[in-house]
Amino acid sequence: MYHEQQEMPTAKPALVVYPKRKQLMALGLLIIFLLIVLCSGSIIFWLFFWRPVLGFFNGSMIESVGLYFLLITCIIVLLFWQFRKLLQALFTHQSSPVLIVNSIGIQMYAMPGSGDFFITWPEIDSISVHSYRGLRYLGIRPKCPEQYLSRFTVLKRFGMRLYDLTGSGLSGLPPINVGLIYLNMSVTEFFQRLSLYYKSELSENHVRLLP
Questions:
Q1: Strand, coil or helix: what is 28?
Q2: 77 and 174 inside one domain
């Protein structure tokens, strides 16, 4: 009996990452709130100042400002989405993980970035680190982005597409990402444990690690 137990394969430990200090999330909430106020102020400025003035200009000028108004509106919607995710993460108990890696795939819970998602190992093309506007992000790129995103709602697909699908998105980030500033594990330790625990999954599914 002892010999049989020794030959049984041992389960791989899950790689669990917890949220970082709550103060960082509170700072993120403040920054996003200020950005929302700034963008909202630009819309109010457009409605009460530029709109009356533009009555004296040609149609092309009005169309240009209209496109600007549409872009600012989309940015505000995205900021509200991020604000909700961060607020949810802020009030999540500290013991609740935000990122779990196991032998099936990777699960991320509500955090600033792509939000809730699950992706299996065969669907992953690469796991990498990216920099954008002074912050570093852990990014996951699916092998078939369009197929993967088709499982989400229209609003979630819109938010994820704003990051990147082909490397030419607004930020250059993969569609699945989370800011490293919100995680209590260093990126070096994360990739070391990932390589140690899930070497076979990475190799069999040809997942590239780009730390």
A1: helix
A2: no
- Separation between Cα atoms, residue 97 and residue 73, nearest integer Å: 33
Point out which residues pair with 167 in neighbouring strands.
none
pLDDT at position 52 is 54
CA–CA separation, 102 and 171 (whole Å): 29
Note the Cα 205 to chain centre separation in Å.
23
Instruction: Identify the domain boundary among 32, 57, 90.
Output: 90
Cα–Cα dist 195/201, whole Å: 9
Final residue of a structural domain among 45, 72, 90: 90
Which residues touch 113 (CB under 8 Å, ≥6 apart)?
Answer: 85, 137, 176, 177, 178, 179
pLDDT means per 10 residues, the chain with 211 residues, are 39 80 66 80 68 52 64 78 70 70 87 73 94 84 87 75 51 78 87 94 95 84
Q: Would 42 be classed as within a structural domain?
A: yes
129: phi then psi, degrees, rounded to nearest 5: -115, 135
Task: Specify the 3-state DSSP secondary structure of 8.
Answer: coil
Residue 147: which domain range?
A: 99-210
| Tokens found for residue 21 | 């200090």
Distance of CA 12 to the CA centre of its chain: 26
pLDDT at 197: 93
Which of 184, 182, 181, 198 lies closest to 127, judged by CA?
198
State if pTM tops 0.70.
Answer: no
